[in-house]
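Renewal narrative, Specific Aim 1. Our central claim is that a sequence can be written position by position from structural information alone. The example that follows is taken directly from our test logs and has not been curated for this report. It begins with the C-alpha cells describing the chain, in the order in which they were read.
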C-alpha cells in the first residue's frame, strides 16, 4: 500500500507523546514543574506535543498504515522532548522506546495476523500515546555537553547514595525518581488534564509495572 497517510489530519488531532523513563535502581523519572501559574507546582512525565517534523523519516513522509505512522512519529517526539527537557539523548528511539500498553489487546475476529502482533494503539489514551524507556547511569548527560547541568537529585539505593544530574529545560525546576506506582499516579494528577495519572492507574489495573 503506497498511500501516504494524511499527516495534516493527525496534526489537527493534537496528539501528544509521553515517556515512562525507568531506572531499575532509582525508579520512574518525574519532572517538577513550577512555571504554570494556573496549575501550581506539579510533577510531569517527559513528553509533549507531536510536531510535523516528527512525521518525517529521512525527510520523507512515511507510506505505512495510519497506526504505524502515528506510533513512529510519537516515538520521535518523545525522544525529542526527553532531550529538550532533560538532556538525555536516545540515539536510536525506534529500538529503545517501546509502546506501553494501557489495556489488553483483543484481536479482531477473522484477523489471522492480529493474534501475532502488538496493537500499538493500546498505548493510547485520549490522544496521548505512552511509551517506556529503560535507562542506566550511562544515559545521563555528561558535563561539558551542549547545555550546562541545571538539576540534580540524591537517590539512596541499598544505603548507597547516588547523585543523578540532568540538564533541565526552563519549564522545570527539579526532578525525582519514584518507585511507588500509587504515589506516581497521585503526583501526576495535574499533568495533561490528569491523563498521565489515569494511564498509570490503567497499567496498575492490568497488574503491570512501569
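The sequence written for that structure reads:
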Amino acid at each position: 500500500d503506497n498511500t501516504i497517510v494524511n499527516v495534516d489530519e493527525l496534526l489537527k488531532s493534537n496528539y501528544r507523546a509521553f515517556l515512562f523513563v525507568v531506572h531499575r535502581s532509582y525508579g520512574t523519572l518525574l519532572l517538577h514543574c513550577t512555571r504554570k501559574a494556573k496549575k501550581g507546582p506539579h510533577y510531569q512525565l517527559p513528553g509533549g506535543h507531536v510536531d510535523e517534523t516528527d512525521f518525517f523519516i529521512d525527510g520523507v513522509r512515511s507510506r505505512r498504515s495510519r497506526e504505524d505512522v502515528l506510533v513512529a512519529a510519537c516515538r520521535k517526539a518523545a525522544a525529542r522532548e526527553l532531550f529538550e527537557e532533560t538532556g538525555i539523548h536516545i540515539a536510536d528511539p525506534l529500538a529503545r522506546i517501546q509502546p506501553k500498553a494501557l489495556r489488553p489487546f483483543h484481536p479482531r475476529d477473522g484477523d489471522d495476523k492480529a493474534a501475532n502482533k502488538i496493537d500499538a494503539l493500546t498505548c493510547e489514551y485520549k490522544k496521548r500515546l505512552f511509551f517506556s524507556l529503560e535507562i542506566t547511569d550511562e544515559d545521563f548527560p555528561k558535563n561539558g555537553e551542549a547545555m550546562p547541568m541545571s538539576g540534580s537529585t540524591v537517590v539512596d539505593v541499598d544505603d548507597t547514595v547516588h547523585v543523578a544530574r540532568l540538564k533541565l529545560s526552563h519549564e522545570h525546576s527539579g526532578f525525582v525518581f519514584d518507585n511507588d506506582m500509587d504515589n506516581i499516579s497521585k503526583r501526576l494528577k495535574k499533568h495533561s488534564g490528569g491523563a498521565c495519572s489515569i494511564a498509570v492507574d490503567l497499567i496498575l489495573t492490568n497488574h503491570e509495572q512501569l
